[in-house]
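Justification of resources, computational component.

The compute hours requested in this renewal are based largely on the per-chain cost of generating structure records like the one below. Each record pairs the submitted sequence with a full structure-token output. That output is archived, and it is also reused by downstream analysis tasks.
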Amino acid sequence: MVASSPNKLREMPAAFRGLPNFLPFDGNGYLGAYFTKAGDVDIGQLADLFRMSKAQLAETVGLPLATVTKSDRMKAPKAQGRMTEMLEIIARIKDWAGSEAQAMAWYRSQPIPALDGRTAESLVKSGDAGAVRDYLDHMALGGFA
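The structure output for this chain reads:
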């Protein structure tokens, strides 16, 4: 998305206003549909997308079940941050993984040798999503694992 007008950035989900060139989060893009008009992650739609219960989705990002079942807790910055980090990683790998389901399988189970054999899921849970993004950037530029 190219920010052609100042209003275009206001239409983007709040969590991604700092990423104006990342197309999957554009309102018309792949993941734009998984956010409410207020810019929050829609946990119900995500659970449906990945064919998981809300409890399984919460576990995947390292949040307690109460966080995803109570709307006021789901709007907390930590909960929104974890969900958006997971979505960003899924969006980056979706095309080469083949589908959302396969991207989620990679996210949850594939050890990343360059990151001490940890999975993307375990890194996001521990607050190291930046390491996964750096790894994916490195791989996209033709680097080796």
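The first helix runs from residue 6 to 11. Residues 1-28 have pLDDT under 50 and may be disordered.
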